[in-house]
């Protein structure tokens, strides 16, 4: 079970970090558009579509990574006070009742949606450039599959929490600046005391 959790976490991390580079491409594309629009007075017809496509792809492909790191929004003002065993029981029910049906609907609907789009070579209707978008519809299915795999890993985490009363955390690879500052302050305080 632990090896599957590590596999799913690694898979989600690889895709999440790979697609995170779209932020750089979006920034370059937006910078280019601003330059040609306001300096050269020659706006592009494709910039808005491409930024929408990249942002949507980034958002979708980062979902499993965010799930693996516990980064999705939770209403846990009472939940956090519970023992891991109880949290695991609640989570496993919620995954089975809400998460998996929703992700399966995403995969199946996304498959139909992408297949239709590929059939007629869909292009964007938002601009006169007619940017092809059919290939990006497949992202819906890929994101759903990644979420499904990560969801199974999260259920495995729930089983471990129910059995052993502790949460198996994902390997930390990204830290909030505030957390790093708190760690640094705590270490400085310990050094000062000793």
What does this 3D model show about the protein?
By secondary structure, this protein is mainly alpha-helical. It is built from 7 helices and no strands. The protein has one domain (1-193). Helix 2 (22-38) runs antiparallel to helix 3, helix 3 runs parallel beside helix 6 and helix 5 runs antiparallel to helix 6 (134-164). InterPro entries: DctQ (IPR055348), TRAP_DctQ (IPR007387). Belongs to the TRAP transporter small permease family. The chain crosses the membrane at residues 21-40, 52-71, 92-114, 134-153. Residues 26-158 form the Tripartite ATP-independent periplasmic transporters DctQ component domain.
- Average pLDDT across residues? 89
Q: Flag low-confidence runs.
A: none
End-to-end Cα distance: 42 Å
Share of β-strand residues: under 5%
Query: From N to C, what is the helix and strand string?
Result: HHHHHHH
Main beta sheet? none
Helix content: over 70%
Shape: flat
How many individual domains?
1
Q: Helix count? A: 7
| Total DSSP E strands | 0
Structural class: mainly alpha
The Rg value, from CA coordinates, equals 21 Å
Subcellular location: Cell inner membrane
Subunit structure: The complex comprises the extracytoplasmic solute receptor protein and the two transmembrane proteins.
Protein name: TRAP transporter small permease protein
Organism: Sulfitobacter pontiacus
Attribute tags:
single chain, 194 residues, mainly alpha, 73% helix, 0% strand, transmembrane
